[in-house]
Amino acid sequence: MSEKRVKKVVLAYSGGLDTSIILKWLQITYGCEVVTFTADLGQGEELGPARDKALLLGIKPENIFIEDLREEFVRDYVFPMFRANAAYEGVYLLGTSIARPLIAKKLIEIAEKLGADAVSHGATGKGNDQVRFELTAYALKPEVVVIAPWREWDLRSREQLIAFAEQHQIPIAKDKRGEAPFSVDANLLHASSEGKVLEDPAQEVPDYVYSRTISPEDAPDKPTYITVDFETGDATAIDGVKLSPASLLAKLNDLGRDNGIGRLDLVENRFVGMKSRGMYETPGGTILSVAHRAIESITLDRGAAHLKDQIMPQYAELIYNGFWFSPEREMLQALIDKSQEFVAGQVRLKLYKGGVHLVGRSSPYSLYDQDLVTFEEGAVAYDHRDAAGFIRLNALRLRTLGQRKKKLGL
């Protein structure tokens, strides 16, 4: 427990068993007033029950906050990240990681509004989310007290949690009376599943774990063709229909789901030091990632494109580790956003049985010059004879090194 006396705490509240227990535990352990915040990030769950449960647990109506953050989430967090083509360890599209700074930011905003001196979350002491929540909280409100019950209480098993709930008349869903087969986190960008039946990386993910995609084997035998339009690096339309950021991602999710796109079975390196196995479903994000790289391929200069690829792993790691509000992430973002000024045009894709296949791209700012690249007689701007001098100059140091080796008999 913090040595500082806590009078009011804002809790990131889902309405589920764990955060409901945390709510009651905060009231008992800290004797403080609890404010609940529930974020709608497109997780696909009804949020009304979260309000009802908070009321049932004694939270005043004016201390219950439920906010639809879907547009802000995609516009201000997902899209900036996708401008960077960010993928942690080369493959993970950071669906959970990118949601945490927004949730924590809202916790701090509510704390400031209500004069709360603490915030609380339900992340465990083994995972990355505790780091992400708390780094954001301290960046935005340095003096805030963060209460992480999983690092403080002595409730160590599902049975103990249920016993605590029953003791304090906390409603328990029937399927929560046993051990959950796996843990799920979801938002508009992805769904992630980990733990229990997924903990052995040698075993195939059971079919019942998947919630956002159909099996590629069950996807239609006929491919689906779509176009995605871009402006300054952000997707703006599908098949010529302009959509808001959240609506566009939701539409891509539907297309990805129906074609079995976006499944990833990953063993990753957590920031806290251990490896973990998770199953990620990112149907719309997978399509968006392919489309964005495609439009960049004809609109970005080679130097800019290669520089982006060099900094991407560092940028992705900053997000994964919880440093969204760090100066280095913001500096990299400025560089990335500068590169997107002319990343505009249309990409045509074929979606088929789990695959996203690029079939065409065009842009009014395209750097692709067919006259220059053609094997036929093309523009006079390129003289084949110029290549000889270009090669000789680039070979100069290699020839010098070769002469030294020959002289030394190496």
Question: How would you describe this structure in keywords?
Answer:
single chain, 410 residues, alpha/beta, Rossmann fold, Argininosuccinate synthetase, chain A, domain 2, 3 domains, five-stranded parallel β-sheet, five-stranded antiparallel β-sheet, 12 helices, 14 strands, elongated
Structure description:
The protein has three domains: 8-70 and 97-180, HUPs (Rossmann fold, 3-Layer(aba) Sandwich), CATH 3.40.50.620; 184-300 and 343-362, Argininosuccinate synthetase, chain A, domain 2; 374-408, no CATH class. The chain contains twelve helices and 14 strands. The chain has helices at residues 17-30, 48-56, 70-83, 100-114, 129-140, 158-167, 245-258, 283-299, 302-321, 327-339, 370-373, 386-408, and strands at residues 8-12, 33-40, 64-68, 118-120, 145-147, 183-186, 191-194, 224-231, 234-238, 241-242, 263-269, 275-281, 345-352, 355-362. A hairpin with a 2-residue loop joins β13 and β14 (355-362).
